[in-house]
Amino acid sequence: MSDIIGKNTIKLDLTDSTNNYAIKNLDMGKWAEGTVVMARGQTAGRGQTNNRWESEYGKNLLLSIVFYPRFLPVQQQFLLSKIVALGISDTLSLYVENVSIKWPNDIWVSNLKIAGILIENTIMGNGIRSSVAGTGINLNQKKFTGNAPNPVSLIQLLKKPVDCEEFALLLFSNIEKWYKMLMNGETKIIDLTYLKNLYLIDEEAFFSDNKRKFKGKIIGVGNTGQLLIERKNGIISQYHFKEVEFLL
Ligand code: BTN
Question: Whose CA is closest to 62, among 80, 42, 47?
Fold first, then answer.
């Protein structure tokens, strides 16, 4: 059971985007921390870098969680991505095997994407004033028609439908567990567990940056969320989001 996340839940039928709804209506002090906005459908679901998020009406989990992590310095905001990704991957792991976090914060099962995260923060001074953590998790959608390269859902993997409400409650309690650790300053365990669950960690793989295709090994993630890749010659390069591509 969770005592922060989902205590207050706003259930919408259709909205443009649960992140937009939360950001527009988020009224300091009125919306308790942990308020969740859920919708059965989105008309303009947003993904990372202006992508659209595809989700068939009524089939999947589409939600945004409001946090007020004022204790978190701006430079450490990637920790929010980590705890949300960990909460989602813990929950999915109750249903299927081979769940991992594909840097920076996609959730994959084997080499297919099952969930995405879009976190939007407002900053005050050196701290985070509010954070809207949106996630779309593919539960019961059987066919994907958009241009996402490798979508998958739980129903495709399990061959049976998943109860959205039940999944949401497990998710809230798992994300809350990690959020409480963050509040308690237990960042070491968050960092270590994120790395342990990272897709392709310590494995030779092919990547490409704006210069060329190369072989390397993910060896970690820096404080601001940059990916650290070591090449055969021992040189370590740092990449921010969209500066490097995984060649699968
Ligand atoms: C991505 O992988 O590109 C991130 C996708 C995030 C989608 C979710 S669905 C709920 C919330 N509302 C949005 O408009 N986007 C996020």
Answer: 42
